[in-house]
Structures are given as structure tokens and as C-alpha cells.
Amino acid sequence: MLREVPIVSVNTGAVALLGEHRGRLVYSGIVKAPTLGGTDLYLGLGGLLDPLDGHRVDFQADERVIRGKRVHGGPLKAVYAYPRAHYTPWANELNCALIPGGFGENLTVDDVLEDEVVIGERWAWGDAILEVTGPRRPCYKLNMLRGDGTSEAMMANGRCGWYFRVIQTGKVPTVGVLQVIDRPDTGPTIADVFRRKAQDDPTVPDMPDD
């Protein structure tokens, strides 16, 4: 084990109406709320499940594949983590109160930031094992959730969080710690990759065409 990362909150959400964009109703699973502390979940290859019946407890509304790429979710984005440290500056900038899950993340974590997380490193979460795959690129839905300009601000400030794929499925706790168990000797951090992506293309993805 290389280090421990405290779990602040595990967050899930159902598909719900987010609002209207470009004349169309937008449904999303970005609105997430903390689960009850002490309630274990099961992590499958595609995300979080009820450990008793295996039904999904966290959802993405748009699972289409467009030009070979999933619009949302998919194996490389099975779990989204976000640092609690970002909540204070966001609350000041957005002038609103925020609770864990407020940026659509499944895992709100402590004591780690994007410049400390290396692509390809592996984390143990209960019986499951995760692998870091890349940063989150904010889209128009974050603007709908948090107000116009939020996605553009994230592109500028780098407070993006990161995705995991699931290497090993298993029961996962909603309290406790995650353990960083393996890290490549060399490789880019989440901050490195996000900076390059933002420099190459600073635009915020809009609603995809049908």
C-alpha cells in the first residue's frame, strides 16, 4: 500500500429532468446525493449496484454511442472521484452552499488532488480494485447544474476530478478509506493530462446531435 485516501462520501443518483437546453428537455444522472453511512454497495464493471439484488443504484441518462464513443459513462468512466478540497473555492465562486456529490461524483475524497494522481495507478476500495483512467472533461450539463460558466471555469482552474475503470468487482464500503496499492514509475498525472486537453481544445462539449 502506497497511501490511504479518506472517503468523505459515496454518492449516487437516478436519472431526472435537469432542465431545457437548445429547446430540448435534458435528463441526467448528474444530480447525486450521499448514501447512508455504513451501507455497503457492490461495484460492478459499469458502476455501483445494490449488494442484495444487483440492481443499479447509480445511473447515466445518455448511454448512446456516437462515432464510436459513449456519450456518458462506459467502462473507462465507471467511477468518478472528486476532492473535497475543491468545494470551498467553488462555494465562494458560485456563492452557494454545496454538499458532497455536488459535481456529479460517485466518490468525494480527502487529502488528494489532481496533481498527485497518476494515470494507471490502482486503488483498492473494499473488495474492489480501481484503475485511474483520466480526468473529467466538463460539458454543458455541469453548467445546467451549477450555473452558466461553471464548465468554462473548471476548464480554466483544473478542478476536474478523475475517472476509474473497475479492474476487480466486489463489495465496497461507504465509509473508511481507499488504498493506493500500485502506481506506475513514470507517467502523467491527472493535472498534466487535463492541462494538455484544455490547451488543445478549451471548448466545453455541447449537446451531441442525434
Description:
The protein is globular. The chain is of the alpha+beta class and 210 residues long. Strand 2 (16-21) and strand 3 (24-28) form a beta hairpin. The chain has helices spanning 87-94, 140-146, 150-157, 190-200; strands at 3-12, 16-21, 24-28, 33-34, 41-44, 47-49, 65-66, 69-70, 79-83, 107-109, 122-125, 128-135, 162-168, 170-172, 177-182. The strands form 4 sheets. It has a 7-stranded mixed barrel with strand order 1-10-9-13-12-11-15. The chain has one domain (3-61, 70-200): PK beta-barrel domain-like (M1 Pyruvate Kinase, Domain 3). 16% of the residues lie in helices and 33% in strands. It has 4 helices and 15 strands.
Q: Topology, please?
A:
Blueprint: E1 3-12, E2 16-21, E3 24-28, E4 33-34, E5 41-44, E6 47-49, E7 65-66, E8 69-70, E9 79-83, H1 87-94, E10 107-109, E11 122-125, E12 128-135, H2 140-146, H3 150-157, E13 162-168, E14 170-172, E15 177-182, H4 190-200
Parallel strand pairs: 9-10
Antiparallel strand pairs: 1-4, 1-10, 1-15, 2-3, 5-6, 5-14, 7-8, 9-13, 11-12, 11-15, 12-13
- Total strands: the figure is 15
Note the run of SSEs as H and E. Answer: EEEEEEEEEHEEEHHEEEH
Calculate the mean pLDDT score and round it.
94
CATH-defined topology: M1 Pyruvate Kinase, Domain 3
The total domain count is: 1
Coarse shape: globular
End-to-end gap:
45 Å
* Top CATH class: Mainly Beta
Report the major sheet: 7 strands, mixed, barrel
Question: Which structural class do the helices and strands define?
Answer: alpha+beta
List low-pLDDT spans: none
The radius of gyration over CA amounts to: 16 Å
